[in-house]
Design brief:
The structure holds two protein chains of two kinds. Chain A is an alpha/beta fold. Chain A is built from eight helices and 16 strands. Chain A is elongated, with a radius of gyration of 21 Å. The complex binds flavin-adenine dinucleotide (FAD) and adenosine monophosphate. The site of adenosine monophosphate has 22 residues of chain B, from α1, β4, α3, β6 and α4.
């Protein structure tokens, strides 16, 4: 079985999820190839190679939204029994969906593990991560799986420089005609959310956008990144780049501090695997306490200022 | 402009759902509700229809239950609905869902298809892209803002780093995030009118889609098991000194 890993460019490096998936693919044995979308560079090839790719197929989409072209190109490359891994990220999901429809094969999404035996199966978490479901492909493949970030730890191995094979942009007419006319980065201060070892997150319990200042101040003192629930992202208090959860970032820091966050299932799946979880919530029954190592039943407007003062005094 | 909005009826998320121990399918109660996240897609569809003098048709695949959720969606102002409510669709995976929806949408000859980025209960998050491929359309996905400019659609597409502005000519599929717009509440008049609106109910076979349901999905649930549990933590009620507990734990974790 050949394993393909979809890898998108992330500011001049392969997306970290791609390196995580390559590491897993390597452990499953067999031939591992990467399908890279972006401008590409020698440092990217060597990162993909050291994580397990022996060949890299390289599609440079220019300003086109790459989804349709990448799906069409991949459809021509992959063979019947192959396993193709995508990350739970926007372009990965676009390509996985289009490829699935193009080939008429299912795609299993939200996988936290992949099991290869007599058949290929993906493991999913449901009900806020309390229950695991193992689903197997019954057809002959190719098997498409969308993997949740941080399910596997990226580790480089022995691999050397991979063979790089350019992939021409297929002409798909109208279906491939979406173009990116502008790109915007919303720079976050401090450490990156997905890499931070400490994260301080705020939710609707803060009461107002201004009070997110307390989260920033605490994070500054701890050298932490700031996170948020979807509720306050949708309300426009903070940018989407800060969202933690099923439809935001999946994080596994050493310490996660949840302030005024109820602990909805969709938030929990994004942070419940943190090593130590501290929660402050005034509702004793809040579900966040179900995963917290230390739960403070209290008012964020009282606890946080005192915590900030105590840390400043140190 | 003629617009199709894909909406899903789901078991009320407020009541915990059950899996059938034998089939492992979600047990679907008769009364299902409109997936709350679909209200954003409906609102986007209604605003574009209002701006262009167009119409909105709701398209939904619902393997069971009544039409309560669809009536909620119609009450917001959509013109009519096509509901493929066919027991043979039980257990269908995302691709079968997309095939059924695509077949229904083709009959409507629309300029634009609006969907959510992921459903609340299924959250495979691939149906819009599958639809686009089946319909031969570009997919403008993860839109946090949607604008119509003279036959073209321009969106702000959420990315890991920020957002991209992406454009394509119609016909196209767009998937919208919660937060893209502020969904309207149905008015009393809207609720009354919804009862009279046309709801077409073709079967999958009538739409020309065979190989549906669990069999046609190419996937099978092997096992459902509890995840390893996290050890229970400690709860402290704040009486003015609880922040010191946090400081202590941060010291233990060597953060301070
Ligand atoms: C398909 C889908 C995907 C989703 N994806 C995500 C996701 O990726 N990430 C995400 O976070 N959510 C996601 N959600 C939303 C999720 O279901 C919740 O609505 C959201 O997480 C709630 O945010 P919250 O905890 O800030 O707000 P709330 O649920 O309103 O909770 C606020 C909490 O603050 C507490 N509180 C109030 N005042 C105080 C005070 N003074 N001091 C202390 N505590 C106080 C309250 O007791 C309450 O528990 C998703 C939902 C759907 C349907
Ligand atoms: N059964 C369905 N009927 C109508 N639309 C659906 C259905 N399933 C998914 N969709 C659409 O596809 C989007 C993404 O769903 P999913 O891929 O299931 O996460 C939803 O927000 C809907 O707009």
């Amino acid at each position: 079985m050949k394993i393909w890993v979809f890898a998108e460019d992330a500011a001049g490096s392969p997306a970290s999820i791609a390196l995580e998936m390559l590491t897993k693919a390597r452990s499953l044995g067999g031939d591992v190839a990467a399908f890279f979308v972006g401008p590409g560079s020698d440092s990217i090839w060597s990162a993909l190679g050291s994580h397990g790719a022996t060949t890299v197929h390289h599609l440079d989409p220019g300003t086109a939204l790459p989804s349709a072209a990448a799906a069409a190109a991949l459809a021509d490359l992959i063979g019947a029994g192959d396993l193709v891994l995508f990350g739970l990220a926007p372009t990965d999901r676009d390509v996985a969906g289009r490829l699935s429809a193009r080939l008429g094969v299912p795609v299993l999404s939200n996988a936290v593990d992949i099991v290869v035996g007599d058949s290929v199966a993906a493991v999913n978490e449901i009900l806020g991560g309390t229950t695991l479901v193992e689903t197997a492909f019954t057809g002959s493949g190719p098997h498409l799986v969308v993997v949740r970030p941080k399910s596997f730890v990226a580790e480089s191995g022995e691999g050397g420089t991979p063979e790089v094979i350019p992939v021409p942009m297929p002409d798909l007419g109208h279906a491939g005609s979406a173009v990116i006319v502008e790109r915007h980065e919303e720079p976050a201060q401090g450490p990156k959310l997905s890499e931070a070892s400490v994260i301080v997150s705020g939710g609707r319990g803060l009461g107002s956008a201004e009070k997110f200042g307390m989260i920033e101040e605490l994070a500054g003192l701890l050298g932490a990144a700031t996170g948020a629930t979807r509720a306050i992202v949708d309300s426009g208090w903070v940018p989407y780049a800060m969202q933690v959860g099923q439809t935001g970032k999946i994080v596994k820091p050493n310490v996660y501090i949840a302030c005024g966050i109820s602990g909805a299932m969709q938030h929990l799946v994004g942070m419940k695997d943190s090593t130590t979880i501290i929660a402050i919530n005034k509702d004793e029954e809040a579900p966040i306490f179900g995963v917290a190592d230390l739960g403070i039943v209290g008012d964020v407007h009282k606890v946080l200022p005192k915590l900030i003062e105590a840390l400043k005094a140190k | 402009m003629k617009i199709a909005v894909c909406v899903k009826q789901i078991p009320d998320p407020a009541t915990p759902y059950r899996l059938d121990p034998e089939t492992h399918f979600v047990v679907r109660p008769d009364d299902q509700v409109l997936d709350d996240t679909d209200r954003y897609g409906i609102e986007v569809g209604l605003q574009l229809a209002e701006a262009t003098g167009g119409t909105v048709v709701l398209v939904s695949m619902s393997p069971a239950g009544n039409l309560q959720g669809i009536r909620q969606a119609l009450a917001m102002g959509a013109d009519k609905a096509v509901v493929i409510s066919d027991p043979t669709l039980r257990g269908s995976g995302a691709l079968v869902t997309a095939r059924v929806l695509a077949a229904a949408i083709k009959r409507e000859e629309v300029d634009l298809v609006v969907a959510g980025t992921e459903s609340t209960d299924g959250y495979a998050g691939v149906v819009p892209q599958q639809l686009a491929e089946l319909l031969g359309m570009p997919a403008l996905t993860f839109a946090r803002k949607v604008e119509h400019l003279d036959g073209r659609l321009r969106i702000e597409r959420q990315t890991a780093a920020g957002y991209d502005v992406v454009e394509a000519a119609l016909p196209a599929v767009v998937s919208v995030t919660a937060g893209a717009v502020e969904p309207r509440y149905p008015t009393f008049k809207g609720i009354m009118q919804a009862k009279q609106k046309t709801v077409d109910q073709p079967t999958a076979a009538e739409l020309g889609v065979d190989s549906v349901g669990a069999e046609g999905s190419g996937q099978k649930i092997n096992e459902v098991r509890p995840a390893p549990e996290r050890a229970a933590g400690r709860k402290v009620v704040d009486e003015g000194e609880a922040h010191l507990e946090i400081v202590k734990l941060l010291e233990q974790a060597k953060v301070v």
